[in-house]
Amino acid sequence: MKLIVAAYFLTLAGLAVFGTHRYLLLYLYRKNRRRRNAPPAGRFAVWPRVTVQLPLYDEMYVAKRLIDAACGLDYPKDRLEVQVLDDSDDETRGVVDDAVDRWRGKGFNVRAVRRLSREGFKAGALAYGLERASGEFVAVFDADFVPPPDFLKKTVPYFTDASIGMVQTRWTHLNENYSLATRLQALYLDGHFVIEHAARCWSGRFFNFNGTAGVWRRQAIDDAGGWQHDTITEDLDLSYRAQLAGWKFHYLLDVETPAEVPALLSGFRTQQFRWTKGSIETALKLLPRIWRAALPLRVKLEATVHLTGNLAYLLVAAPLSTLRPVGHDPRAYGVAVHRLARSGDLRRRVGFDFRLLPGEPATGRKADRQDPSAHPGAHGPRHRHGREQYARGDRSPVGPPQRVRAYAQAPPRRTARPRGRHALPHAPRPRTRRRIRRRPLFPAADSVCHALRGLGVAALSDPLLRGLRVSRHRDGLADGAFPYRAVAARRARLMRVAVVIPALDEAESIGLVLDDIPKDRVERVVVADNGSRDATADIARAHGAEVVLETHRGYGAACLAGLAHLKADPPDAVLFLDADRSDYPEEASLLLDKIAEGYDLVIGSRARRAEPGALLPQARFGNRLATFLIRLFWGTRFTDLGPFRAVTWNTLERIAMADRDFGWTVEMQLKAARLKLRCAEVDVRYRKRHGDKSKVTGTLAGTVKAGVKILYVIFRHALAA
Fold it and tell me: Which ranges of 361-433 would DSSP assign to H, the alpha helix?
């Protein structure tokens, strides 16, 4: 017992030390806040050479944005070098190569640097790039950062002080208001960057480079021993080694570099695990060296508390582990929680079934007397037989089978009289237990969000639900694998989308179609005029569209002309849309959200939501026949060959579309099926076309030609395979 008391006291003492340290940092911040706007010591007569390093690994959706921001820095072009340290093994490589080629064509010194292996991960990539860098100073930006154009001109002048080895800037948050989770993370990071960094820097104590949004003097990296990957926080490790080598660091609180915080709690958990483990590894590696160095005692103490600060979590957990559940029964705690969550009033207001989280004992019982299912004799006339069983002394459960279940080996419990108008004088309460399913954490979080919505706080539950719920691919990706819905939503907003609209004599409807396209999701609109004899092209230009002329008649030829126009500056995804206003352009977000989730091709299926008369019988029959054959030959299920579809640019390059006529849509789908690409369908509305009848299914000749061509394309590819 004495040992337990002593351990408990020491634990509380350790927590008191870490808590007092937080107050000390706040005091140092307020005491030294006048140093906030200290100007640089001087100016460079000639801007020094700077290398910007961009470490990437499978960041397809943000790679282009990062490269554009790095090449858009307001710095002399001949003094700037951009290294894209690309360790990716997915479509990111193509995105990087396209962006690099585009900026090199504009005269920028930018190149993709790739290794044969990912040894050392980020630290290895940075060291590999540094060996090939030409800059005297090195700026580092992670994939989810967007450096402002004046970043280098605000940070590089501080290196006129020859003792400065690194300049760190403050992180800000692009998606702070996305959900409750992102707002809490932003608050947490602001405390670190506003209070902790500033207090340590301004009071002359050691602080760290945060891995990104900072500039290094190359000599400082070399003097510290270079990037090392024996810890998973290479930035913290290098920071302390450089300061032990005598270099000073400077922190710019007023220079902001926007970035994105993890939209999912799973991403936040991974990030915190890395930071926590890395700080302890760095402490084990460097604390002996720090205490042997000729440093002031205040610097040594601050470094010790900084590197071991995550031990506070263990100190918090230690006293909790000494607590025993109610009644000294390990199962009682789970029972008490289950009883509270199963209370009739709470369930009626919340409208969800409680599930125990992983690790909680599945021993809950139906103890709520307000719950009719807990009283087999109190179900009213429909369950009158329950009273007869009670009278016979039958203790088996009765009532709705989905609500009442009997379990063997139920623990003994005190019987009580059922209450209510159906209660019998001496009827013993049956000994029943309800099945409690163990579920993983994220579905339980869904239940919490539904509870919040039931209590009338949907404003809190909806963002939290978006941030916690995990979506699965239909093609079998495991739980936790890409993509998450919240990440997909973020990527959807960042995608560059272009719309291609093949048009032939659609002057009556083209303007309406262009007005309905969601401008917040689409960057460019290309109208491929297939030789119109009316004012289709002029109306399209008047509505802000780019018009491309294709004199060769054919739906596929017009689409190919639109894609050729986009090839000079390719988007991330292309949305195909008819010009007759039979589709609903405002539903484009449904398709683009699927693309952001990781699908290569998304078809807007008209099979279920077409209005009467919009999809003619011959069109329905042709769709069913063609999709049946695709499923028969290649195993991919479609329900429609609808022209309303979204596809990634990389997919278009892989499938190499060639048909210039009626076989365009089916060629795209069967090639995607043959290559085993990730395909999906989204039910969309479909209305009668605006204007005259359809040029294909509206005439007998068009129907026959289209049907023959579609079947020809399917069987030709089937025989070729």
Answer: 385-392
Confidence tier at 311 by pLDDT (50, 70, 90): confident
Summarised one tens digit per residue, pLDDT across range 180-223 is 889 999 998 999 999 999 999 999 999 999 999 999 999 999 99
Helical ranges in 214-330 per DSSP H:
218-223, 234-244, 265-292, 297-307, 311-321
Residues near 7 by beta carbon (within 8 Å), at least 6 away in sequence: 318
- Is residue 83 a contact partner of residue 51, using CB atoms and an 8 Å limit? yes
Q: Is the peptide bond before 483 cis (omega within 30 degrees of 0)?
A: yes
Backbone angles phi, psi at 527, to 5 degrees: -100, 115
Judge contact between 221 and 138, C-beta under 8 A: yes
Q: Which helix (H) or strand (E) holds 657?
A: none
689's CB contacts (< 8 A; 6+ apart) are 509, 580, 581, 582, 614
Distance CA(710)–CA(398), nearest Å, equals 60
Give the Cα separation of 28 and 576 in Å (integer): 59
H helix or E strand, kind and range, residue 466: helix 458-468
The residue written with tokens 């040594």 in the block is 300
**Sequence-distant (≥ 6) Cβ neighbours of residue 156 within 8 angstroms:** 44, 47, 48, 50, 137, 215
Angle at 476 between CA 475 and CA 482, to 5 degrees: 95
d(CA 633, CA 627): 10
Give every CB contact of residue 1 below 8 A, 6+ residues apart in sequence: none
DSSP bridge partners of 171 = 257
Cα dihedral 336, 342, 343, 347 in deg (nearest 10)? 150
Q: Is 253 helix (H, G, I), strand (E, B) or coil?
A: strand
Paired sense of beta strands 546-549 and 524-529, if any: parallel
User: Which of 406, 398, 361, 365 is CA-nearest to residue 380?
Assistant: 398
Which residue, 235, 246, 255, is CA-closest to 155?
255
Share of the chain above pLDDT 70, in %: 74
- Distance between CA 105 and CA 98 in Å, rounded? 11
